[in-house]
Design brief:
Number of domains: 1
CATH class: Alpha Beta
Radius of gyration: 11 Å
Order of helices and strands: HEEEEEH
Number of strands: 5
Distance between the termini: 25 Å
Largest sheet: 5 strands, antiparallel
Number of helices: 2
Helix content: 25-40%
Length: about 80
């Protein structure tokens, strides 16, 4: 997954009300910052190795970006 695809997936899942920054590294890893109001979520990883994310001070791991986005929706709406 590249940065553009990640932005599209996040927008489709969370809508236009969130701010999204995506940085793509040469290794294929992505660093994603999602902001909605007072909430900020940091997401790092890729489709192959999985994703880690910090949401409301909790560090979690997920196998895919869809799982991360479900957790984001449940927490920040």
């Amino acid at each position: 997954m590249n940065a553009s695809t990640a932005r599209d997936i996040i927008a489709a899942s969370l809508g236009d009300s969130v701010q999204v920054r995506v940085k793509e590294f040469p290794t294929g890893d992505l660093a994603i910052k999602i902001t909605s109001g007072a909430h900020t979520v940091a997401v790092d990883g890729n489709d192959t190795g999985g994703w880690s994310y910090t949401i409301e001070g909790r560090k979690e791991n997920a196998a895919d970006l869809d799982t991360v986005l479900r957790a984001v929706r449940e927490t920040i709406g």
